Amino acid sequence: MGRKHHITLPENIGLKDSVTATSWLAPQFFLEEFESYKQKYFQKGENKDLVMAYILLQFYLENHFHYYLRFLIGGGFSSLKVEEWNGKCGVKTKLDWFRDHLVSNSFVINGLDFEFIKDNYQAIADIRNSFAHGHPVTETSNGGVKVRSEAKDFLTRQKFNEIRGKANQICELWNKIMTEVQNQKSLLKMAKLPEPHFFNNCKFEVF
What we know:
By secondary structure, this protein is mainly α.
C-alpha cells in the first residue's frame, strides 16, 4: 500500500467563468517522510538515510510554521497583500510578526520563549543547509588526531537523537503557545478570529 500524501484543498470552490483550485503540501506529508527515513536509519545505520531524515525534519518544521502562520497573519492583516508578503518572509520573521503584531500588550505568554524557538530552528536549518549545499563530509587523521568536518559530526545516532530532542522542544513550546493563544484568543488583533479547533490544528506532532 502506498503512502498517503497529504494535500490540503479549500472546502469551498466557487464556480464562475473559470475555476481555480489551490492546494498545499500539508506538514503531515513531511513528517511521514521523516519517520520513514528515521526508521530506515535505525534499522540499517546508513548515512544516506540519516541525511534525508535531517533534511525532512527541517522541512517538516519549516512547512508547519509557514503553513499555519500564513493563516494567522492573514487573519490579522487583511489589508496586506498577504500571499506576496508571506512568500518573501522566513520563519523567524513571521514568528516575530506573530509575537509583536498579532497579540495585544495584555497578552500573557509566561515563560514561553520565542527566541528559543528561533535559535533552535535556525540550528536545525543550518544542518539541513550543510547537506543540501554540498558541504564536505570528511574525516582526516593528522598525527593520530582525527579531524571531522562539521557535516561529518552530524552523522552519528547520538547527534541525531540530540537534534531530534531540540526539534521536539521547539514543537512542545509552540504547542504551549497555541494553548495560550486559544485561552486568550479575545486578545488577538485579528480581523476575524479562527474557529476554536484551528489552534489545535496549529500544534505540532511530537515525534
